Amino acid sequence: MAKSPASDKNANAADKATDNSAAPAPTHQIWLAGLGAMAKAQEQGSKAIEALVNDGLAFQRKSQAEAQQRLHEATERLTHLASDFGQQTTVRVDRLEHLFEDRVAKALQRLGMPTLYDLQALTERVAQLEAQLAQATAAPKTTASTAKPATKSTVQSAAKSKASRTQRKA
Which pLDDT belongs to residue 18? Predict the structure, then answer.
């Protein structure tokens, strides 16, 4: 029996339909896998989102802690550098100050100006002399106040000795 071309087409279509039911085509498998993933995502969507949020928070905290640690280390390094720089500057200023003082002292010495040490020595010497003068002036006052009142005989003997002295000079 001869087959008609229309019957061949129907037979081929029937064969294809049976092939699809037995083993789906790869594109159809991909489509079904996508639908399955979507169904699972709907079932576990809120759980997955919560897990992702928790993972994101943990990562953010870890990143912030590391950034703070690095900032602290950088701050310590900069503080140390600034301190070293300040000390070096202080040393250099001190050296410059001493150099300036030495040059000024030499110039004043050439001009014959007394130094600070000379002025201090003179001040000490004046204080010593003032103390000696105070002692010398205080000593006669204390002896005069403790002495007995002059009697006639003391006054007469003092007058005689004065007269004898004037006679010797003449």
Answer: 47
d(CA 53, CA 38): 20
Q: How far apart are CA 156 and CA 117, in angstroms?
A: 57
40 by Cβ neighbours in 10 Å (0-12 / 13-18 / 19+) ranks as exposed
Which pLDDT value is given to residue 166?
Answer: 47
Task: Quote the tokens at residue 122.
Answer: 């003179």
Query: Under a CB-based contact definition with an 8 Å cutoff, are residues 115 and 105 in contact?
Result: yes
- pLDDT recorded at residue 159: 53
Element of type H or E holding 49: helix 26-110
Question: If DSSP codes are grouped into helix, strand and coil, which group holds residue 151?
Answer: coil
The helix (H) or strand (E) run that includes residue 148 is none
Give 10-residue mean pLDDT values along the chain (170 residues): 51 49 76 84 76 87 93 93 90 92 88 87 95 88 56 53 48
Spatial distance between the Cα atoms of 138 and 126, rounded to a whole number of angstroms: 18
Any idea where the domains of the chain sit in the sequence? Answer: 26-111
Distances (CA, A) of 120 to 92, 156, 158: 30, 53, 48
